[in-house]
Amino acid sequence: MTELRISRAHWMDRFRTDYRPVAEVECGTPIVFETNPSSRLATGPLFVKGAEPGDALAVTFRRVEVVGDEGVMWAIPGRGVFGSRVERLVNRVVPIQDGLAVFDDRVRIPVRPMVGVVGVAPRASGWPEWEPLASVVGRAPLPGESFCAWPGSHGGNLDCREVVAGATLYLPVAAPGAGLGIGDVHAAMGDGELMLSGVEVQGEVEVILSLRKGRAPRAPLVENSTHLMALGTDKTLEAAAQAAIEHMASLVQAALGLDLVETGMLLSAVGDLAICQLVNAYPTVRLSVEKRFVLGLSV
Could you tell me which CATH class the domain 4-222 is placed in? Predict the structure, then answer.
């Protein structure tokens, strides 16, 4: 099948219900997104034929690659875990050499490309409970709109380091055609993304799309060969963790027919809770479960 390539010149700074697609695509078509080195931009949006509200859009990552020989990291006053002590804006250029991100003469970090921003048009009701995010861009989001720099149930700037080649991300479709956008490739990023950014680079992301008709998840899910991961984003770290836990619990109960206590005990034994990011206005948390412990666990 002929590959579809979306140039990084087709950038978007927000996901929105009334999007204007840069292309239409059939499920199963190989698509290459050229990405810009910024969490505020994604490439797209795409109209996925057959995608309807209530569906799950499955984005399978076949290839995630760094383009070029350098990345950049940022520190901004007031942003990130250390923001209260950062006195001036700093951007650090990080050379990429022989599969390593050269932090300095002593520290070289293995390149592990991952995708920070993947999302679809949000639900039409908007995000009235997220009005404090107005401080980031000067206003609250409009109904059916979410800036690429923000995470949420539609995806967006999730910064989940498990969104790599070989993984599949499931997103809830809220608008006809989905309005898919992808961006913000990192050459390296640790869980939490503590200062503000990983090593942001230009990238290429090759995906294949499919649909699970009528099976939209309540929030993004990530699957690889061994694990299923539920992602939760909310105003506080505790609330984000609770969202991820409740989502995974519902999937485990459906797969195994367990009651609440049994489900909680199983997740206590085999679930791994981790922080994806603490820096994107609201935190994102993931709960991972090995699929071998929950036969039949699926989206």
Answer: mainly beta
